[in-house]
Structures are given as structure tokens and as C-alpha cells.
Amino acid sequence: MVQVAIAIIHQNDRYLLQLRDNIPTIVYPGCWGLFGGHLEVGETPEEALVREIKEEIDYDVVNFSKFASYEDNKVTRHVFILPLTVKINQLTLKEGWDFALVSANDIREGKIYSHKANQMQPLGDIHHKILLDYLS
Predict the structure, then answer these.
(1) Structure pTM?
(2) Domains, the chain, ranges and CATH?
């Protein structure tokens, strides 16, 4: 089974999301989602989280906690919560099409505007569910 570590990254009642590249061969192409990725061989979910966040937005994760795990017949998603302690303009997006700090209302609506795409894009289904669970 594939295992991934993903993060609910928050700052001042807003949540940092990644707009995934619009490549048909990836999971949730052109959808908003949480930052994170696959565990490498021998890696714990916590180690993967720290590595993935550094790789994707050049952010050093220090303080985080486990939120939950979500499992289906293909993937186990280890979900963590962590604060964003810098301004978004201090991050460097290295993976994905766009990123943004979004409100809880944006998350509830399930569609978020991307300045780079110049249009509304949907939240990926499982990421939407995870975020709604977190907000409730």
C-alpha cells in the first residue's frame, strides 16, 4: 500500500494549499490540495513530512502534530497539522501550479480562485474531506 504524509498548514485562520499541476497522469490534476507526498523506503511519516514540505515550498518544518490517518484500498494518508510562521512571500513554490492561503469558507465551497490559472479550481475530493473534518 502506498503511504503519504500530508499537512494542514495554517496561519491566522487561513490554510496553505497547493494547486496541483494540470497534468492528466497525476492524481487530482488541476485541483487544490494539501502539501506533502510519498514516503520513501525506510522513512517514517514524520520524516517524509519534513522532507516533502522542504522540497515543495522550501519551508523548514519544526513544530507539528498528527491529526489523523485516512486509508482507502490504495493509499494511507498520514495527516499532520503545522503552523506557517513566515509570510507566504517568503516561501518558494517548487512543485505545483500555484499556492495560496485560503479561508475556511473557500474550503467549504470546495472551489478556490487561482491567480496563476486565472480561474476557479476545485479542491481534490480527499483533501476536501480532510479539511472539512479538520474544520468541524
Answers:
(1) 0.95
(2) 2-135 (3.90.79.10)
